[in-house]
Amino acid sequence: MKNNMQKNIFWHEHLISREKREKYNKHRSIVIWFTGLSGAGKSSIANHLEKKLFIHGMHTYLLDGDNIRSGLCSDLSFSKTDRKENIRRIGEVAKIMLDAGIITLVSVISPYQNQRTMIYNMLGGVKNVLEVFVDTPISVCEKRDPKKLYQQARSGNIYDFTGIQEEYEIPSNPDIILNGTDALEINSKKIINILYKNHIISFCEN
Questions:
Q1: How far apart are the first and last CA of the chain?
Q2: Identified catalytic residue from 74, 110, 155, 172
Q3: What is the pTM of this model?
Q4: What does the radius of gyration of the chain's CA atoms come to, in whole angstroms?
Q5: 112-150 tens-digit pLDDT
């Protein structure tokens, strides 16, 4: 039934192209994909960066992992199969926003290399994706533990938790590695300057 339905689906071409949207927005679109342990600082850095970009007139949107799981992915568990589907769905949303000419920031643990590679290929590779690895020691993440998730995982109340029961696979070739213990301003500035260097945006910070 599913295959028969798919045969009757036809791609609808838009009259307004991605290039036209980018020209109108006065910047290129890109997906900035933040990966790292829970508590590494992904969302904090992404929020700080988005605010700076927005103030400079950039068209942005932040897709936060917890927010997505509250709606679009609320039916998914934390099994490996469901984690892959969670990442796939986020990737599909990011792909739409990429076509819309928006700078999209994605903050999600995305612990497995094969899933990050899937996203990289889905979004069109290096010209469309900036992979940011927020490298924060698990000892620091666990000390922060703003959601008390590490505490619950250690006590056995949460299973399949990345960094405790489940492995986090270090990115093999991220575009940028940030120290999650550095100030938000420092980390945001590093990304802004890379975006400028890659001709995504027209301003940089010294």
A1: 57
A2: 110
A3: 0.92
A4: 18
A5: 999 999 999 999 998 999 999 999 999 999 899 888 888
